[in-house]
What does this fold into?
Amino acid sequence: MDDRATRESEGALEADFASRLDAGKSIEPRDWMPERYRKQLVRMISQHAHSEVVGMLPEGNWITRAPSLKRKIGLLSKVEDEAGHGLYLYAAAETLGVSRDQMFEQLLAGAAKYSSIFNYATLTWADVGAIGWLVDGAAIINQTTLAKTSYGPYARAMRRICTEENAHKRQGFEMLATLAAGTPGQRAMAQDAVDRWWWPTLMMFGPPDTDSPNSGELMRWKVKPKSNDELRQRFVDLAVPQARAMELTLPDPDLRWDEENGHWSFGAIDWDEFWRVVKGGGPMNRDRLRDRRRAHEEGRWVREAAEAYEAKRRARAETSAPS
Ligand code: BYC
It folds into this structure.
């Protein structure tokens, strides 16, 4: 094909891609897609997958210290669900031509991003409730919109994840509400957890729209159906009445109901802190990577055993196949 013919056929593919998006159809792994669309999806989905598996660590720390059998079972199952979410998401990213080993290498080398929120310490049992209520609550707001994202495998992974995430949020709310209605000491512990997790949760939605280099492109391609600020506002609007229901205070003196726009307006977010954490300078960045590397190393024998089992199974299937 000469240059002109190549350009014409690429133009036709691009036009077809754009018309699929305009018609609200999903893009599937075998469909043609612009290279930049593929790269953006790999970036976003792999970061999301890393967030799930790193996100297992702060709560995982509390499994052995849960205050009752019921709480232990609930937390264990939540952390297991997060491993499953990581799995769906790595599998979705693999459909774009990147391998799970490559993604893991980047994470373990400290070269990949994952959500800023997991670089904060879980100091008390109430933090487990605050993570469920606030962090999973924020994740649902974001992920419910991503369930309508234009890339089919990502959207389908999101739909499964959202159902489980809803249960996590409710579990966290119930834990925190129980502490808030408990002894003065338990109540103080719940309030302290909310005081420490509130602002980092607002940062989870990413930088303000005016400072979000990827949003324009991602929204044009219908990867991100809503902007960072829109989702953050929706989260605040839902969280304020929930905090009130537990009689807990949100640590923002500027929080007030805005009659004119019908939303809760909130104070300034410390974006210097956000960027410091994203760039590796958060309170727990080093510990999280160290623990993730150790978990990967300790799981090596499981991966090797699974590979050996699969090799044997194949060899047996080949020798017993009718010739
Ligand atoms: N943390 O242009 P922007 C969970 C980076 S886990 C770190 O706005 P974009 C759970 C961003 O990557 C749920 N980095 O980016 C698990 C970009 O850097 P690069 C996690 C952040 O992509 C266990 C730069 O800042 N959810 O629920 O348009 C237990 C500029 O940002 C963050 C997801 O991953 C951050 N918070 O929008 C409990 C959702 N924010 O890559 C719960 C999927 C921004 O250009 N991801 N950055 O070097 C998204 O929705 C979007 O990627 C984001 C960012 C809203 C996060």
